[in-house]
User: Fold these one by one.
Assistant:
Number 1:
Amino acid sequence: MKRSELNEIIREGEKFIASFGFKLPEFANWSLDDWRRNKHRAGEVLRARLGWDITDFGRGEFGNLGLLLFTVRNGNADNLKTGKGMVYAEKIMISRENQVTPFHSHRVKTEDIIVRGGAPLEVRLYNAKPEGGIDDKRPVVVRMDGIEREVAAGDVVQIHAGGSITLEPGHTHSFWAAGGDCLVGEVSTVNDDETDNYFLDMVSRFPDVEEDEPPYRLIVPDYAKL
């Protein structure tokens, strides 16, 4: 993805997030110079890979296949092992109208996907097979706002503003916004995008960046260059 495209996506995303009164932390607004001045006190941000995250899943068609995310907080795997400390994570995301996040599941993370505002979010569901792939026969049992619901394999559920779905390890899911753009929250156990995303098709989670202009905001993969 071109840096100019990433910059424009973030500018638009900032406006959309702000339109719902959702406030991002201070470092969300840092320029590259701000990062250089404050790197010494941002160790936890860097370790937990907090901040802006944009993906087109390696397909080069962000409008059709992609997602904008901002990780607000995140613990680590050691916390999960001991059950102490920060065992949770939180994200805010923008799913654009008919912009698909492709089928994937997690083996560790349990997550609540919450529609914070905007258009409904549609989620297609399957159970993952232990050996890989999806089970297109067995119904999927999920909780939506705490209420258990059985969904036929491959069916779509729609989540409106204020609603949520709990996705547990082995729930293979794909989602998109329907009828407009959607502000999506995620509250989960510790998030590890490097090792705990199992996509049904081969995709690239983080973009290769073509530097055609300076960064407006850094994205998580940029931290390695600081």
Note: The first helix runs from residue 3 to 18.
Number 2:
Amino acid sequence: MTEPFPSEPIDWEEEEDRIAPRYLEAGDPTGWFEELYAAGASGRTTMPFDRDQPHPLLAQWAQTRRLDGSCRRAIVVGCGLGADAEYIARLGFDTTAFDISETAIEIARQRHPDSPVAYLAADLLNTPHEWIRAFDLVIEIITVQALPDPPRQQAIANISRLVADQGTLLVIAAIHDENRSEPPPPWPLRRDEVEAFATDALSLVTLETAAMPGTLDSKRWRAQFHRNEPPPKYC
């Protein structure tokens, strides 16, 4: 007999802590995403990774550069419910966004019914061949830190391969703190793991510990990479 849902949805992070270890122990490092989003869609939990605004460090980076995506292609890795992808599309990019969770993609499409973004269910560990070096801008925000190693290094390499000639990769991630021990996931990134995106002829341009807007002590890695210097000149 199926247990009834609680009167109030379970916090999605509590559910993540419960189900993710089961998948990891079974050797499936990504399967828990679909179960977690499905729980949110059903109302059993609050909606995972739920925001309707772009990540503040992405928006800050784009505004500083007056980013113009005219005649350029972009892809958002692990797009979730689509806030970052919609922002990038508004900047003029022909935008593709993907997530391994089919439920997340369905919700993103429902939330943005008139969107120009191409939302697709796809596996970062097995990306389509036609995506290799196909995008002028690649956005990776907190996806890799949700993966153990392995397959983290494979995920990093696959993201780097998406960047087109003269293209840019932006990586935003939590910072690993050796003095803190918390049950994974996530696994915040060490500096060397961020630097590892500089592969397949990508060059590291900037690597900073950027303060989250509106906070005093909350910081994230923000790294920018380019394929083939000089970097592109945005309109």
Note: The first helix runs from residue 12 to 25.
Number 3:
Amino acid sequence: MRLVLFGLLLLGLQSCSEEYVRPTDVTKIYVEPILKDSTLSVRAIDFDEEYVYYGSADHIGMRALHSQFKVDISKLTVNNGKHHFKNVITYDSVPMHFRAIKVVNGDLYAISIGNPARLYKLHRKSNEPKLVYEEVNEKVFYDSMDFWNENEGIAIGDPTDNCMSVIVTRDGGKTWSKISCDNLPKAKEGEAAFAASDTNISIVGEHTWVATGGMVSRILYSPDKGNTWEVFDTPVIQGKPTTGMYSLDFYNENIGFAIGGDYTEANDSLANKIRTTDGGKTWQVVADGKGPGYRSCVQFIPNRNGKELLAVGFKGIDFSNDSGLSWKHLSDKSFYTVRFLNDSVAYAGGRGKISKIILR
């Protein structure tokens, strides 16, 4: 009996150690709920080995990915569930709304939309967020955040002057400063950005791309971690406050993809998907009038040579395996934002839910 059990154990270990190799096409997806809460409206999501972190309409939170066995001696209770930490941060007794977050070495950074914009750092060993930046302006509205490394990060927002709002940190998020409009491309009338999925910024090494939208939808580009900037036009649909790029991702220094459209005409797929192969200097419309209409988030699937993309929005989930030239509709399930763990697993957030998406 022991030999049989030992053999079965070895077989199980061998099976678990074998990595799943996904084919070049995706035929189906599995959506596994991680958290359901009718009050959630998740447009910003990130994760590490232990938690999924998110920003929502009235709080920032983190949900354990694995069950945690805890014994409370004082209450003689045992808990084997998944820890869920929810932090409601208020200003003038009103909960703040977070649509841009980033996790760096277990520390959570989150910036609120609206006036005032407040950026908090939540240390991995603390439950008390620390205010590290505040901006008071009737026009202030921050849309997205990312980091170049553990010390240097960036957040972008709508113009409060004659340029996009860009703030940076160079000291691990302890302090943030706003880049002067003298050092940024001038914004055009009606140009802003969308806080739809926290993916207006894409970073590869020291290279940074920012997608704007609205009446004008362009790419702001920095080759040196935000020290110098230039701007490139795009052929994406624009000309209305609700049009333009909603999401941007780069696979490497050359290959990038952006998606958007007009959320008020969500089925329209004309000029809402664009691709670059020269680092964002020039862009081409792809799948024009075909494939998904408005989507709020697009991501390259890791380790697939820049060929595979996943797009999500409130109209569903779509997949491309030819650099966005053609698309397959995988599901009508609604999500606002998505981030990949590997080429088969992603985490997504939407209205009332956070889920794990498995590609097969």
Note: The chain has one domain: 24-359.
Number 4:
Amino acid sequence: MALNSVLILTAGFGEGHNAAAHNLAAALRESGAACGVHDVFEEAYGPVNRLVRQIYLFVINHVPAVWLVIFWILDRTAVVGGGIGVFGRAARLLARLIRDQKPDVIVSTYPGYGHLMDLVRSRGEAGRALVVTIVTDSITVNSVWFRCGADAFFVANEETAEVMRSAGVPPEKIHATGFPVPLEFSGPAPERSGPPYEVLFMVNSAHHLASDIVAALLPIENIRLTVTVGRDGELGRMLERLAADKGVPLEIHGWTPGIGALIRRSHLLISKAGGATVQEALAACTPMILTQVVPGQEEGNARLLIESGAGELAAGAREIAAAVQRTFSGGAEVYARRLEAAKRLSRPDAARAATRILRTLTT
């Protein structure tokens, strides 16, 4: 069986799932394989799926203790596998996609699809396709990811591979390919010099804290601050006024497809511990200051950064500003150590590595 066609399944519940899906798709298409990317739950359930997504985002950002309980239930029980039959419409849509595309490989970047594929396979509707799951979390991997019949699991690092082996996943099924980041990360790295040092603050869910954080960062000497505000234009205008009042230059970006270039040029990234964000920072060899960690799935991302020495956690504007000052003070010795730690974890060619292994598995 050759690798001619790949069906990739993703979902909008977190940045990492879509990022991994589309980055892998780019590498597959580069290699000559036909590739389709589908959010089957969105296509099957539309408004209901979007409502559930909004509830999920509200819970993880505003009542994380509730999400921790849900994460524990998903990890310790068979509620997903046992209840997957209620998603009959999604299963029928997935079976139709398989019939139409006739993929050699079906890749999932969202844990629910592993169980949905088990249902489709049990009905004899999966064809001969190899089923692969890309685990987008690190270390604190919920068992819902691997309590399914996938033929192979691709993980971001050896630490995560060891966690899954210890949980009973057959070692031959696990491949530490790295997290699929954009292909641009494997190109020549932009030259970094300093001072001034480039600091990138990516505003995520805590928009109400952004102005306090920026106000604390602007007076720091020897840094050049860039802030991304997504689609929050009002926040961008507020930060522009804040910087103008202080007489300090500030570069602001709204939603931009060039976020990879911003990360790669920066000496330091300030953001939450999202799977895609952490892995892109590591791929770019950009140390991080973490501002928020969602209980459960993001705890492993934070552990990976902190225990390796590639970053630290700082909660609150004053703490974040102090961490930035500490990073670049005294000849930037802290930055130099964190840069070396990030280099040891960097996997900028992970999407192509995953493509090569997929070709090996289908030979």
Note: The mean pLDDT is 93.
